[in-house]
Structure formats: C-alpha cells, structure tokens
Design goal:
By secondary structure, the protein is mostly helical. It has a domain of 66 residues. Helix content is 95%, strand content 0%. The chain is built from four helices and no strands. The longest helix is centred in the middle third of the chain and has 128 residues. The N and C termini lie far apart (162 Å). The model has no long low-confidence stretch (mean pLDDT 79). Keywords: Coiled coil.
C-alpha cells in the first residue's frame, strides 16, 4: 500500500508541475513505477473522457444553432402577433366608430320623433280645447234657441189672442225666418 501511495504522490506531483526539464525526468520515473496495463487503462479513460468532452461540445454547438433558430422564430412570431394585434385594433376602432355614428343617428332620430310627438300632443290639446269651446258655444246656442222658442211661443200666445188667427201665423213665420 505504501508503494501505491508513493506512486500516486509522484503522479500528483507530475500533474501539478509546470513542465520543465526536471519534470520530464519525473515522468520517466513515473513510467517505471506503473505497470503498462495501468497506464493503458488510464490513457483509455482519458481518451473516453476526451471523446465525451468533444461529443458534449458538438451537442452544445447543435443546441446553440437550435437556440438561434428558435430566437428567429420567436422574433417572427412576435412580429406576426403585432401585425394581428394592429389589425384587430384597427378593426375594433372602425367598429367602435361605426357604433358611435349609429348611436348619433339614433339620437337624432329620437329627437325628431320626440319633436313630432310634442307637436302632435300640442295639436291634440288644441283640438281638445277647441272641441270643448265649440261644445260650450253649441250649448249656449241651444240654450238661446230654446229660450228664443219659448219666448216666441209666449209672445205668440199673447199676440194670437189679440190679433187672431191670421196674425199669429204671420208673426211666427217672421220670427222663424229671422232666426
């Protein structure tokens, strides 16, 4: 075990040295300390690690290319999204303006309708008032006519007694035609 420890210690010293001529001697000594099969196993392990490292580098390059491709796709998608949003926004603005115009037209139509309704209601009130006034005049005229007939009948009765029959007819016909 002690011998393995010394070998490992020498190997670590070789790995940590700076690469001078004395280091080359140490490497030569280290080669005699290890069996060729051990060195061969270690070289194979280092080769496998180097292969894995290069494989990882290749994968990393592939991933970088894929990332760049994805970034370009993202940029295109964002641009397309902006175009769609602008199109939707313009369409929405147009629809809102159209609805505002329609509301304005409906308000104008409602205003005209209300004016027409107020005018119609005024005409109805005027006609109603005129009808009441005419009904009142008709009532007064009927009353006057009735009173005139009654007074004519009373006057005719007193005159008929005085004038006789022929005078009565004459006075009645005169009063009726004068009315």
């Amino acid at each position: 075990k002690r011998e393995e420890y010394q070998r490992a210690n020498i190997f670590n010293q070789i790995n940590t040295t700076s690469g001078s001529d004395s280091d080359t001697c140490d490497i030569d000594q280290a080669m005699y300390l290890f069996h060729p099969s051990v060195l061969q196993d270690r070289v194979l392990a280092v080769q496998e690690q180097l292969y894995d490292y290069h494989h990882l580098l290749d994968e990393m390059e592939t991933l970088k290319k894929q990332n760049k491709k994805l970034e370009r796709q993202i940029i295109e998608i964002v641009k397309e999204n902006k175009r769609r949003n602008m199109k939707i926004k313009k369409s929405a603005i147009y629809k809102v303006q159209s609805l505002k115009d329609e509301i304005t037209d409906l308000k104008k139509e409602l205003s005209r309708s209300r004016e027409h309704e107020f005018h119609y209601n005024d005409e109805m009130r005027n006609m109603h008032n005129e009808t009441k006034m005419l009904e009142g005049e008709i009532s007064v005229l009927r009353q006057e006519k009735h009173e005139t007939k009654e007074s004519a009948c009373k006057n005719a009765g007193t005159d008929s007694i005085q004038m006789g029959r022929s005078g009565l007819l004459k006075s009645l016909s005169e009063k009726i035609f004068t009315e």
